[in-house]
Specification:
- The complex is a heterodimer of chains A (261) and B (279).
- The longest helix of chain A is centred in the last third of the chain and has 26 residues, at 235-260.
- Chain A has 8 helices and 10 strands.
- Chain A has helices at 46-54, 93-97, 99-104, 109-121, 137-149, 167-184, 195-201, 235-260, and strands at residues 8-17, 20-30, 35-39, 61-66, 69-70, 78-81, 155-159, 187-191, 204-209, 214-220.
- Chain A has 2 domains: 1-77 and 154-167 and 187-229 and 248-261, 3-Layer(aba) Sandwich (Rossmann fold); 89-152, no CATH class.
- In chain A, strand 7 (155-159), helix 6 (167-184) and strand 8 (187-191) form a beta-alpha-beta unit.
- With 279 residues, chain B is mainly alpha-helical.
- The termini of chain B are far apart.
- The chains are: A alpha/beta (261), B mainly alpha (279).
- At the A-B interface, helix 3 of A face helix 8 and helix 9 of B.
- The structure holds adenosine-5'-diphosphate and magnesium ion.
- Adenosine-5'-diphosphate binds next to strand 2 and helix 1 of chain A.
């Protein structure tokens, strides 16, 4: 019996594509307001895991529950932040950010005001009328984030949203994301292949192993919040990054040996 | 074997002096081109050459008309009200056919994408008819529908509809799967996916097809009228040719050219207004 009802509860989730086992028997709970990062070697099923929770993919077996309700399709209780910003090029920044409410059919003056304040929150004040092609990569990802937040989701799902950004922009976006997240403390799942990013952002890091994908370790991050960027130079931080690196390194080495035969 | 003259070095001082004169001419010419633009100069130059050739080289009025004569013919035809009548008939034929082709073309293109059976049934016809020079069927339509407006409208429809169908289909098919998935993640149903992603992303293609249709439609009108008609610019042209009235013949062609240019640039303007997100 799980005593406090978890925000997100994954039980026995398995996923295969034809004969390829991508995820096997994943069970994990996420508490309300937790920031979780997912790291693991590429191809271990991180995106697939997130897509199943987003309702964009069906699990072969097992369930994911959000607030106790079984997830069986996409819905506005979840906001997906895509790896490639996926902005609609014919829509302005504002109208891109508004698409969730628009699809849900609850657009009104008050909603529009909320979206405008979200754009302010992500630092895009004054860009509402711009088309995506006039924005930098960092700005486009801010719109991507604002769009997910506009439906006021219970769960924020982010798939390597900063992977296409240069190192400096990326660090800025990390601090920005934390600042924005502190505002509402939404439950968040964040996939990344950058371990220091995972440690910097998260309350817990799920380390995925491959073949088939599963959670091989859950690493709690007990660094105090709010976290300035300088936390990345503290010995506890470095030790955590090192520990997770070792967990993944083993897996990567194993897969390289396996590829050699 | 001749020894090639490879160098002009000894004439260096002359070259230098000449360039200063040349630079003056060059600067003057540049000022002119900047003021009027190369296109204007090219067109005006062409008209002058045309005028001179038709006045002094091709003396016979039976073969060529000078631009000034064409202008005079235009004014004369307009004063008699004849020109307006021809334009009205051709415009009626063009715009009716074009509108039918645009609406039906987009609709058929959508069916081709939306329904696998529809696609399989329509595809061979469309590929086959598109590859055929259908304008050659104009006499047949005239035989069937008479020399009135109806046969011309059919020819325009047949010529315009195919690029519209093909571009609508291509545009809808190139819709990004990622964008579809994005709106789906917000719970969009298939109607919303179509209206919010597929259609807007196909719009530039549909516009390109409609733009192609302008030239094809004009050809359709003229050719169909040449084969038999009571009025219209094509009829003006064929009748003028029979009576060796070159200025009137060219007047008809000039109106068609102007219509083509005007509609194409109007379309470009509309495109910029409706698709501001494109570059
Ligand atoms: N739609 C699909 N069809 C078949 N195989 C897929 C599909 N999606 C993902 N895979 C496979 O599943 C595995 C995990 O992919 P993914 O979840 O994208 O991993 P990650 O995000 O960790 O890099 C990969 O081997 C990938 O090729
Ligand atoms: Mg991935």
């Amino acid at each position: 019996m799980t005593v406090p009802l978890a925000k997100l509860s994954v039980a026995g989730m398995t996923k295969s594509f034809q004969d390829l086992d991508v995820l096997r028997d994943i069970s994990v709970d996420v508490a309300k307001g937790e920031f979780i990062s997912i790291v693991g070697p590429s191809g271990c099923g991180k995106t697939t895991f997130l897509r199943i929770i987003g309702g964009l993919e069906k699990a072969t077996s097992g369930t994911a529950r959000l607030d106790g309700r079984v997830i069986d399709g996409p819905g506005s209780d979840r906001g997906f932040v895509f790896q490639h910003d996926n902005l609609l090029p014919w829509r302005t920044v504002f109208s891109n950010a508004q698409i969730g409410p628009e699809i849900g059919g609850y657009v009104n003056a008050e909603q529009a005001k909320r979206t405008h304040s979200l754009l302010r929150l992500v630092g895009l004040d004054g860009f509402a009328g711009f088309f995506p092609r006039h924005l930098s990569g960092g700005m486009r990802q801010r719109v991507n984030l604002a769009r997910a937040l506009a439906v006021d989701p219970d769960l924020l799902l982010m798939d390597e949203p900063f992977s296409a950004l240069d190192a400096q922009t990326r660090e800025i976006m990390q601090t920005e994301l934390l600042r924005i997240w502190e505002e509402g403390r939404k439950t968040a799942l964040f996939v990344t292949h950058q371990i220091d990013e995972a440690v910097y952002l998260s309350d817990r890091v799920f380390v995925f192993g491959r073949r088939p994908g599963r959670i091989s370790e859950i690493v709690p991050i007990d660094l105090p919040r709010p976290r300035p960027l300088s936390v990345k130079r503290r010995p506890e931080f470095v030790a955590l990054v090192d520990r997770i690196w070792q967990l993944i390194e083993e897996d990567v080495r194993a897969s390289v040996l396996e590829e050699r035969g | 074997m001749t020894i090639p003259v490879t160098t002009k070095t000894p004439t260096m001082p002359f070259v230098a002096r000449r360039t200063s004169v040349r630079a003056g001419i060059h600067a003057a010419f540049k000022a002119v081109t900047r003021r009027f633009g190369w296109s204007t100069i090219s067109v005006l130059g062409g008209l002058v050459v045309w005028e001179l050739i038709s006045r002094y080289l091709v003396a016979s009025k039976l073969f060529l008309a000078a631009p000034t004569q064409i202008a005079a013919a235009l004014i004369e035809l307009a004063q008699g009200g004849e020109l307006q009548k021809h334009i009205a008939i051709s415009a009626l034929e063009f715009f009716s056919g074009y509108a039918i082709a645009a609406i039906a073309g987009v609709a058929i293109g959508m069916v081709m994408v939306g329904s696998a059976v529809g696609k399989q049934m329509l595809q061979p016809w469309i590929s086959g008819i598109y590859a055929t020079p259908t304008v050659a069927l104009a006499p047949l339509f005239i035989l069937w529908c008479g020399i009135g407006v109806a046969s011309k409208i059919i020819v325009v429809v047949v010529l315009v509809i195919f690029p519209v169908i093909i571009n609508t289909e291509a545009g809808l098919l190139t819709t990004s799967k990622d964008l579809v998935e994005t709106v789906r993640s917000f719970g969009a149903d298939s109607r919303q996916v179509f209206l919010k992603v597929s259609l807007p992303s196909a719009l530039p293609f549909i516009f390109a097809g409609l733009k192609l249709g302008i030239g094809r439609g004009l050809i359709g009108v003229v050719v169909a009228e040449l084969f038999g008609s009571r009025a219209g610019l094509g009829q003006l042209i064929s009748q003028s040719a029979e009576t060796f009235n070159m200025p009137a013949l060219f007047a008809g062609v000039a109106i068609l050219a102007a219509a083509g240019i005007a509609m194409t640039s109007g379309f470009t303007w509309l495109e910029r207004r409706l698709l501001p997100w494109k570059d």
